[in-house]
Amino acid sequence: MSIKLTILGCHSATPRENAHPTAQYLEIKSRNFLIDCGEGTQTLLRRHQISFSKIKHIFISHLHGDHFFGLIGLIATFGLYNREHDLHIYGPKGLKEIILLQLKHSKSWTNYKLFFHELESRESELIYEDKKVEVHTLPLDHRIYTNGFLFKEKKGERKLNMEAVGSYPEIEVCDFHNLKKGKDFRSADGETTISNNELTFPPKKALSYAFCSDTAYKPELVPLLQGVDLLYHESTFLEDKKELASITKHTTAKDAANIASQANVSHLILGHFSNRYKDLDAFISEAQTIYKNCSLAETGKIFEIKS
Amino acid sequence: MSIKLTILGCHSATPRENAHPTAQYLEIKSRNFLIDCGEGTQTLLRRHQISFSKIKHIFISHLHGDHFFGLIGLIATFGLYNREHDLHIYGPKGLKEIILLQLKHSKSWTNYKLFFHELESRESELIYEDKKVEVHTLPLDHRIYTNGFLFKEKKGERKLNMEAVGSYPEIEVCDFHNLKKGKDFRSADGETTISNNELTFPPKKALSYAFCSDTAYKPELVPLLQGVDLLYHESTFLEDKKELASITKHTTAKDAANIASQANVSHLILGHFSNRYKDLDAFISEAQTIYKNCSLAETGKIFEIKS
User: pTM for this one?
Assistant: First the structure.
């Protein structure tokens, strides 16, 4: 089990030469997800040699420009490259209208199929599921309707202990399926029972990644984030701008650390920095007064976790 | 009289690290115009230290993404910086709807006034005029409704020849206005007439800049471009892709040179290069078989003409 997260952009508000708005690329169980898509994202994808064609699902947190102004350009570029794969877009209601209006006026309808999964619930909901991965929304508290996203590997099957299995001639290949599912072995005549624990190893831990941007400090997120392996939480401001954070519905580094600490996450990534701060190390210093295991997001930085 | 043109982006289709879609910044008679606004334009404006607040008029040629996907981001950024000046946007019908829809969904209405001047005429028309400058559309032939723009300095007043004027005591200060306008001097009693040519110098030549992107080869433009001092004409392709140029309604370097030659322009700038070409010097070589005085557009390159 492994999760690989590439930070493309991690600053707030307006794009600058070396401060790109939010975009992340997540690899989880061979799925490739793009999370938010600020202006310039397609150029950053190229810079980090991320194949456009691998992206089949894009998750947009909210309709502030620094989180989605790059989406229409990416969709158009996919079209120019004769993409054939379907593209699924998950984001707030309104996004479909915005994209389709621009495609209509440019007469640039895509050859590939574009599916919009528009969100409007204020409760956490399952929005994507396949055999190996689930994605849930994390309702955030921002100036407009906003969701974070929780990406979870599904628990894998138990692994056969072939040495132990081999010592019981009555166990046949057709029994393996049930053993992997965690069931005890029972012989056909019902006379022999062998505990599953004796025959299998537990599966590797299913990993999870939570993306929370943008939001005011919201302790109600803690139960949803409990035990997450990797948490990206916005920290637009430091405590010196706590009032501004409150007015604009953003979080300070200290409060992001509070969330990470209360939710017992394994690692915290801070991001969505206001351009007013030149010394980003101050974000780490402030967060570490509460929670030690944290890092700064940075363009091109890769966070990889394995179990 | 002087015109200063800064090339921000000059490539076609998708933005890349070192190949930016169309955007230009024109300074003419202390007016500051932005022409087209591909994704990433605001970052390029910063790179070239062009003040956001000076831009009061934006001209958008057409609604293909590589010419306007950066506009919504620029409008949003102006808002974040508490712009107060009005902003006028000239572009095809549909642009207003696209911009307003995004501002609505992001709840990011601007504090400054936004005026849309939507275009739909297929004939050249005067779309901007003040005391010193005029802007006319140049109807182009592309896959969707597209205009180029002709920016013209207005002819200035004649300059008084003070030595000559001083030699006629009957000429008073209140006569200067008429002399500058080119009228002959006539004394109040009607007895004395002095030719204007004797009393004034001609005004400096009024300069003009024409922007033509994107378009198929369109000889009908020639009369509209006659004698222009500086012409930017798209040359997406070389002659090796003449058929593709025809299908996609673009122009080859050779045909751009044909337009420049037939219209007797003083200088031609080639741009809107397809990313398939790595050696852009080939565009100059091809164009110069027809028309010598030409240059390649290039990010950051400045073209300045004076009279």
Answer: 0.94
